[in-house]
Input
Amino acid sequence: MKPVSHSQALATSMEAALAAGTLMGRHRISSRKKVNEATQHDIKLELDVRCQKLIEKTLRSRFPQVAVLGEEGISGDPNAEYRWVIDPIDGTVNFAYGIPHACVSIALDRRIDVTSKFRGAVPPDAAYQTVAGVVYDPFCQEMWTAVRGQAARLNGRRIHVSQRSELKEALVSLGFAKKRETLNEMLPQFNHLVHRVRKIRIMGAAALAMVYVACGRLDAYLEYGVRWWDVSAGGLILEMAGGDFTHDQISPDHTHRILANNGPIGKRMRRYY
Ligand code: LIP
Output
């Protein structure tokens, strides 16, 4: 495969995210969103599928050879040198209920050699490093971007994590994912943290929580059971904004536990990870 320009990949990702965001915006108010699947703690919309198809069409027009790992479908070589990581609508339940807190998340991952880091089998996602990422909120018209090694930006302006260092002044977001076991895993963390931080926020879109930490609106984000496509782009943006993205894959289906933070607050939250 010929090398992929990370900056050109970012530009194309931004174009794709804008296209999907425009499609989302056209359906924001509509209460007639077609539901493909509904469970106790999750909804999948027909619009999720349409947005991923639109994103893939834009990405493939410039980079036909890159594999895709997306919430609404996986294609190409699972061990490809490069892969797009796509969450076409992150915060789908918010969006389904008409709450304008949802976004498009697109990342480019590149395969790296990590055999020296692992004695046994390498967790599939650990064999990749995110090299470009975009998170686009069409409702606030906010586009967060980053290429590895360069500054993270919000609508083109450099961003940086907060400087807060005490839990008592921290704004911490939690995610409870979609299953009884992930809820049960996170409830004790909520009970421990709620009395120690300034406020807890549970907002339902991991990608936005990640970039809110990156730009200092939040100081940390903790979730058990989140998928790689929810957090890969936001994780790069956070790291390029001076933050820390701690994550471990907990099952082969790209499920992770994550602690995104500004650095100092993360040190005080390690016990909850
Ligand atoms: C959502 C995540 C959120 C998590 C939800 C869901 P989706 O992603 O962003 O953090 O708690 O369960 O996974 O499904 O809206 O793309």
Q: What stands out?
A: Residues 71, 87, 90-92, 175-178, 204-206, 223, 226, 230 surround L-MYO-inositol-1-phosphate (CB under 6 Å). The chain has a mean pLDDT of 96.
